[in-house]
Write a structure and sequence with these properties.
Elements (H helix, E strand, L loop, with lengths): L1 E5 H11 L12 E5 L2 H21 L18 H14 L2 H8 L15 E2 L4 E7 L11 H13 L5 E3 L22 H12 L6 E5 L1 H10 L3 H8 L3 E6 L1 E6 L2 E6 L9 H11 L8 E4 L5 E6 L2 E6 L7 H5 L7 E10 L2 E11 L3
Parallel strand pairs: 3-8, 4-5, 5-6, 6-7, 9-10, 10-12
Antiparallel strand pairs: 1-2, 4-13, 8-9, 11-12, 13-14
Length: 346
């Protein structure tokens, strides 16, 4: 659908898409651009985050009183320091790409805190998109999955994002929530995940980003600090070392593809040399499938939420269920890999 975007909105959209803003023309303040529903939500989040930052910095906005006096800030030293930092971090070619409006992929960084397990065989519980606080998520099914992971002898659990439903600006979304608001969803998540002693390593996704971008409330951080067995690895993507191999948790902001395997293939194709994980666990699209591509064992982990009215209206299916994966690794290689999907039905 076409939407009216300011030049600043368009710059943000181009950075997400990795396209050159000049293709839309120059000297134009308002553009009409085809965007997806997911991109529209991202732009709304971007605008909310911009307004919040302007308020924090005391700048004049439509929401600040005209009586507020803003002291001018010296910009020269700050700009020079920023340019020096960019010059240290990027090559000349990368700086040219930035100047043209192209995006750059951030280097993968490893955290010593998330090196887990001994080299050998592993059995791990996997789920994603639990969307706690949604009317279309049955919290008891999540609790049952946690018990299944324990009964099957899983070492720990991996979660690929969207732990809670969050609160969207989309009209009608409030009526899809069983627990409305940050505090209510946080308390329900604590209750649900408090049913297991297994460690849960997780990233957060776009639904939790709504609160984080709007008011700085980080659900992942709150759960990490409250429950000793929940380990927040970051937003959207993280890489952890299990034994001797790299496992990536990926949520993403893209949408569904016509063929189930296509999204996983494109993600794997996008990895630069030396950055591929051995195992990739993906969330966000609510689809369940396993593929082996470029020596990467890739799992689209489905979801724990049944189809919502929004998904039904978009003709998007929901593959509801969870996985148990088993693999043997040694010397940085996966020697064998098996996966079992446990579907859920209403």
């Amino acid at each position: 659908m076409k939407s009216r975007l300011t030049r600043e909105d368009l710059e943000f959209l181009c950075s997400v898409r990795g396209t050159d803003i000049n293709r839309y023309g120059t000297g134009i303040e308002v553009h009409r651009v085809d965007i997806s529903p997911e991109e529209k939500e991202m732009i709304l989040d971007f605008r909310a985050d911009k307004s919040r930052r302007e308020l924090e910095e005391g700048e004049q906005t439509p929401y600040t009183k005209t009586s507020v006096k803003v002291q001018p800030k010296p910009q020269t030293n700050k700009k020079n320091a920023l340019l020096e930092k960019l010059a240290e971090q990027y090559t000349e070619e990368e700086l040219k790409a930035l100047a043209k409006g192209y995006g750059l992929s951030a280097p993968v960084e490893y955290d010593d805190r998330i090196k887990v397990g001994k080299v050998g065989r592993h059995k791990i519980g996997v789920f994603t998109d639990t969307h706690i606080g949604s009317k279309y998520t049955n919290s008891q099914y999540i609790i049952d999955a946690l018990k299944k992971f324990e009964d099957e002898g899983c070492e720990f659990i991996l979660h690929a994002g969207d732990v809670v439903e969050g609160v969207s600006s989309r009209p009608g979304h409030a009526f899809e929530c069983s627990h409305y608001g940050f505090d209510a969803q946080y308390k329900e998540a604590v209750r649900v995940f408090g049913h297991t002693d297994l460690n849960i390593y997780f990233v957060e996704g776009n639904h939790s980003a709504w609160a984080k971008n709007a008011v700085g409330a980080d659900m992942g951080l709150h759960l990490d600090q409250t429950l000793g067995n929940m380990h927040y690895l970051g937003h959207d993507m993280a890489v952890m070392k299990i034994g001797s191999v790299d496992v990536m948790l990926w949520h993403g902001l893209d949408g569904n593809s016509y063929a189930l395997s296509y999204r996983l293939q494109k993600i794997i194709e996008s990895f630069q040399g030396g950055t591929k994980p051995n195992i990739l666990i993906c969330g966000h699209t609510h689809k369940a499938i396993y593929i082996f591509e470029r020596n990467v064992h890739a799992l689209s982990a489905g979801c724990m939420q049944f189809q919502t009215p929004f998904m039904r209206g978009k003709k998007i299916a929901s593959h509801t269920g969870y996985w148990i994966i088993e693999f043997e690794e040694r010397n940085g290689e996966v020697l064998s890999f098996t996966q079992t999907f446990y579907p859920l039905y209403k």
